[in-house]
Design brief:
3-stranded mixed sheet, 11 strands, 2 domains, about 220 residues
Length: about 220
């Protein structure tokens, strides 16, 4: 029997020489076999580490608690895509995505494709940094700003990002980008800094609490 990894590799190899549209990507997507993004027509296999998933899971749990405690009209999908603006060949899966249920009736691709096309439907997108940190700090930052996502976190629990983004010397850092006049402004949080989130103003998490989830393992 083929392993999931082998199935995923074969599926990607089948398409790696072609430039796909989003509709073709949806038709190809192997339901139940991993997570994939589409970058300018190229399939990208998302293969997170266990610690990466622990950090993302911890954040989803804490935010879900806030949503329930405050009875907010938000929810966190298990998996959902964000379609790039004015592009039919790119779609991304944030590690954590908080959606505003009030706007989903205007999302034409949500019901059948679990895909968001309008920034106002997303209260918060979070990317947990892996070795391909440039995707989070360059490509996705630009795409999420252009789409109008009001808040974007880059959780760099290993301090992998470039010095222009997290400073010198490099250290574990959480970058919270907030939209103002169609442009992102950023606040950096390290150590015992308490995160300041426009979408979750009562959140009391420190950067270190989040980093510890990914670093303090048996």
């Amino acid at each position: 029997m083929l392993t999931q990894e082998k199935i995923n590799s074969d599926l990607i190899e089948e398409k790696d020489s072609q430039s796909m549209t989003l509709d073709e990507f949806f038709e190809w997507y192997p339901d139940g076999y991993g997570r994939f993004e589409l970058h300018k027509g190229v399939i990208i296999k998302m293969q997170p580490t266990g610690t990466h998933e622990q950090v993302a899971g911890f954040l989803a749990m804490e935010l879900s608690y806030e949503i329930k405690r405050l009875n907010l009209p938000f929810f966190i999908p298990r998996q959902g895509l964000i379609k790039a603006l004015n592009c039919d060949q790119s779609a991304y899966i944030p590690d954590v995505m908080v959606l505003d249920a009030n706007f989903l009736s205007n999302e034409s691709m949500w019901k059948n494709r679990s895909t968001i096309t309008q920034g106002r439907s997303i209260k918060l997108a979070i990317e947990v940094v892996s070795t391909n940190w440039q995707d989070d700090y360059l490509m996705k930052l630009w795409e999420y700003e252009k789409l109008g996502i009001c808040e974007y976190w880059i959780v760099d629990y290993l301090g992998l990002g470039g010095r222009r983004y997290i400073g010198n010397p490099k250290q574990p850092t959480i970058s919270v980008y907030s939209l103002a006049d169609d442009e992102y402004t950023v606040n950096l949080f390290t150590g015992q800094d308490v995160l300041r989130s426009p979408s979750f103003p009562e959140l009391t998490l420190t950067a270190e609490q989040i980093f510890k989830t990914g670093n303090d393992l048996p």
